[in-house]
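Hi U.,

Before I forget, here's the chain from the pilot set. I'm dumping it here mostly so it's searchable later in email.
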Amino acid sequence: MKKLFSFLFFIFSFSFFTPCVGQIYMADSCKVSFFSATSMEDIDAVNSISKPVMSTATGDIQISIANQEFIFKSHLMQEHFNEDYMESDKYPHTIFKGKVNEKIDYTKDGANKVTVTGVMDMHGVQKTITIPGLITIQNGVIFLLAKFDVTMADYKIKVPKVIMGSNLADHVAITFNATMKPYKVK
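Structure:
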């Protein structure tokens, strides 16, 4: 019930503060993944349940990612990620609220290189970041793609020395893909 209320508040806050000129888009599908190489074993995980929301009128984009919904190839990795690194019980979500810096004509098909600047709230730390990406419009559907690195120390995510000795990188590579369609009230 709490999740439903948060979601509805999120949608309605967009509609009250967004001029009628634009459209609200919501992810039809979304995939957030990360990768980090170690000498022992590569670490990668995928979250496919997040639903970003975007306003074409303002360029605002928001996403809340449930940390416990990242799926790893190993149950033990998933457990360590949630308990030791992200402390998912204490910090259940990673949230990004940003704005597309470039002006895009969302009525025209085509690919647009963009940057999105906003605040990433992860592991209890809020940090302003700029993410390079690509927005492709095709037949009224918006495709978002972004690839960027996150430095773990920036978000006070501690890596045990035993793991550091295995050449775990101090950053993880994030890939974000979403297919956005106009939001329709049912």
